[in-house]
Design goal:
Elements: H1 3-20, E1 22-24, E2 27-29, E3 49-61, E4 65-71, E5 76-82, H2 88-93, E6 99-108, E7 123-134, H3 151-156, H4 158-161, H5 165-187, E8 191-192, E9 209-212, E10 220-223, H6 228-236, E11 241-250, E12 261-271, H7 275-293, E13 298-299, E14 305-308, H8 309-316, E15 330-331, H9 333-336, H10 342-349, E16 353-359, H11 367-379, E17 386-391, E18 394-396, H12 405-415, E19 422-428, H13 434-447, E20 455-456, E21 458-462, E22 467-469, E23 476-478, H14 489-495, E24 505-510, E25 513-520, H15 525-534, H16 539-545, H17 547-553, E26 560-563, H18 567-574, H19 605-610, H20 619-624
Parallel strand pairs: 5-7, 8-11, 13-20, 14-21
Antiparallel strand pairs: 1-2, 3-4, 3-6, 4-5, 6-7, 9-10, 11-12, 12-26, 15-16, 16-19, 17-18, 17-19, 21-24, 22-23, 24-25, 25-26
Helix pairs in contact: 5-7, 5-18, 6-17, 14-15, 16-17
Length: 625
């Protein structure tokens, strides 16, 4: 018998032992903990003696009968014991969430007691033996309820929180998502590699987490913000297609869609590709993922919509548009030039812009509708939301009387509104106007009931600017990724106004959530040095800070590009969770604290001395100590 056949025989024997027990000297020997999971039993098992192990989920005392729902990772089964059973007192005493092993006979439920919500709802287990494997103490939070509990309590006792059905399901979903992504990437010829966790600090991007070196006093490693340089070096090394379920570390503040400390992404890179090749590789993966795990919601099929950055900022006020809202904004600044509405007229003359947000079929809304939106805008820090209503051939509202008929006609045409519609206005500096336009567009769409529900709407935002002006210094700086290839290459860098140069950089967006940034990389050393010089970096600085990658490119680098969709954000969308902590097994709180493990923590002085470190704490920390 071959090795494979022998292994198969052992696996089959083990399965038989776990599910059925085995006979020796005429006696049935059962597995000490379970013959089945708590999701296995059905009417087909009626009359069989089985054993289950799990947690006591809930108890119901009906006087002469005590019902117990026993739960494991797979599901739940109802067990029952009669008051005449000698074990009745032991079962009664056992606390909820205690770990127990129950042996009993499977019996069929009567038709009026079948629980259609449970896979095992057609049967119950009549207890003949009961063992408490581990007694639970008084619970700090309810496991068998989705009732609200303070987040700090949930995170401190996360292992209990993870037993709750919704959170447990989210983490299972996360595991399934990662497995799916891995399979699909391998099927496309990508190879999985692991890149270093201890690396060098990067001068670009967010703050690094630093790790002091004991062997090299005074020097520090950094945890990678992303495997960016390493994955590019893999392309230089000739591996052609790389991917990794990559951990990334950034010392930044928490947000609803971003976990402080660490996060995971589907990091991938490809050689000899154009931007469209990258899109063609990842689009079917994302479509398939959201189709598989999206709960029946509609999913945009590939190819996804492409929207230029400038167009996105104009039409949606941001570079991550939620396409479920069918409202498209427009620039109506010209309409107010020289108009009688002095506030906008003077603002436009001073360099500000006016954006219009259409509100279809809003003409019949009461005045309170418009007042509510105006108040909301003021809460966001704006001066308000001006508006005009077009109703029965008339223009109404606080601004309408200041515009003559030709201007009103031009407004309707430009904003794409008709009789029966309304239009809202935001006026601000070009760099600031989107901060109100983007959320106002979403708010108006939601208030009008226009958001497309049960849908995942994807788009690529492309043609990002390579440079922008620093608000404080007025100097030219990189707008996003400094390693993106400029469109037009060296010719554009030498002959174009830097603020007009676009990069081969792109974001993938779903339902208004940025899943990833990506780019076709700048793989030419001379083009890279020129690009950095425009942003104020000397050649010496670039050679020093990016020596590893720059030197590698001098030995022959293929054109390459990639992206890195965020795992946490994708699962958050699929689970329909507003907070990313709901889809991470052990997240930190908003203060970047692990309340369960007590991190970050003080370190004994002898450990600091080993690392040649001294603390120089802020005054308030010294007082607290």
């Amino acid at each position: 018998m071959g090795v494979l056949d022998k292994a198969t025989e052992i696996a089959q024997a083990r399965t038989f032992f776990l599910t059925s027990g085995f006979l020796t000297s005429g006696f049935l020997i059962m597995h000490p903990y379970r013959t089945h999971t708590c999701n296995d039993l059905s009417p087909a098992h009626v009359g069989q003696t089985v054993r289950l192990s799990g947690w006591i989920h809930r108890k119901r005392d009906h006087g002469n009968l005590l019902f117990i729902d026993v739960r494991d990772h797979y599901g739940m089964t109802q067990a029952v014991i009669n008051v005449d059973n000698p074990l009745f007192a032991t079962v009664t005493k056992a606390r909820v969430e205690s770990v127990v092993t129950i042996t009993g006979t499977v019996v069929e439920r009567s038709s009026d007691t079948v629980n259609t919500k449970l896979t095992t709802g057609g049967v119950e287990l009549k207890i003949t033996d009961f063992t408490v494997e581990s007694e639970a103490a008084q619970l700090p939070l309810q496991v068998n309820s989705e009732a609200d509990t303070a987040e700090d309590i949930r995170l401190k006792y996360r292992y209990l929180d993870l037993r709750r059905e919704k959170v447990h399901s989210n983490i299972i979903l996360r595991s399934n998502v990662i497995s799916y992504l891995r399979q699909k990437m391998i099927a496309q010829g990508f190879m999985e590699f692991q890149t270093p966790i201890l690396t060098a600090s990067s001068p670009e991007g967010a703050r690094d987490y630093l790790v002091p070196s004991r062997i090299h006093p005074g020097k520090f490693y950094a945890l990678p913000q992303a495997p960016q340089m390493f994955k590019q070096l893999l392309m230089v090394a000739g591996f052609d297609r790389y991917f990794q379920i990559a951990p990334c570390f950034r010392d930044e503040d928490s947000r609803a869609d971003r976990s402080p400390g660490e996060f995971y992404q589907l990091d991938f890179e490809m050689s000899f590709v154009t931007q469209e090749d990258v899109f063609a590789a990842i689009e079917p993966v994302l479509y398939g993922l959201f189709k598989e795990f999206g709960g029946g919601k509609t999913v945009d099929a590939a190819p996804f919509v492409r929207i230029a950055y400038d167009e996105s900022m104009l039409k949606y006020g941001c570079d991550k548009p939620d396409l479920r809202i069918p409202l498209v904004c427009s620039d109506v600044s010209e309409i107010f030039v020289g108009s009688d509405f002095g506030i906008f007229s003077k603002a436009v003359a001073a360099g500000k812009v006016v954006r219009a947000i259409p509100a279809p079929n809003a003409a019949q809304k009461p005045r309170s509708f418009f007042d509510k939106l105006n108040g909301w805008a003021q809460e966001q820090g704006a001066a308000g939301l001006g508006y005009i209503v077009f109703d029965n051939g008339e223009a109404k509202g606080p601004i309408a009387k200041f515009l003559d008929a030709p201007r009103l006609a031009k407004l309707k045409e430009t904003a794409g509104v008709n009789d029966g519609d309304a239009v809202f206005f935001v006026c601000d500096a070009p760099s600031e106007v989107g901060k109100i336009v983007a959320p106002a567009r979403v708010k108006i769409g939601e208030e009008l009931g226009l958001r497309q529900e049960n849908a995942f709407r994807f788009c690529w935002v492309v043609d990002f600017p390579l440079y922008e002006l620093d608000d404080k210094t007025g100097q030219i700086i990189f707008s996003h990724n400094p390693f993106s290839m400029p469109q037009g290459g060296m010719n554009a860098l030498e002959n174009q106004d830097p603020l007009t140069i676009k990069a081969y950089q792109y974001d993938i967006v779903c339902n208004g959530v940025e899943l990833s940034s990506g780019a076709i990389r700048n793989h030419l050393p001379d083009v890279m040095l020129k690009a950095f010089s425009i942003a104020g970096y000397s050649a010496e600085t670039v050679e020093k800070e990016f020596a590893g990658m720059l030197n590698a490119f001098r030995f022959g680098a293929p054109p390459h590009g990639g992206s890195a969709p965020g795992i946490d954000r994708m699962v958050m969308l699929l689970a329909d969770e507003p907070n990313i902590r709901e889809v991470i097994a052990f997240p930190m709180n908003q203060k970047a604290e692990d309340l369960m493990m007590g991190a970050p923590a003080d370190i004994p002085m002898e450990r600091l001395r080993e690392l040649y470190l001294k603390l120089n704490l802020p005054v308030e920390n010294k007082k607290a100590g």
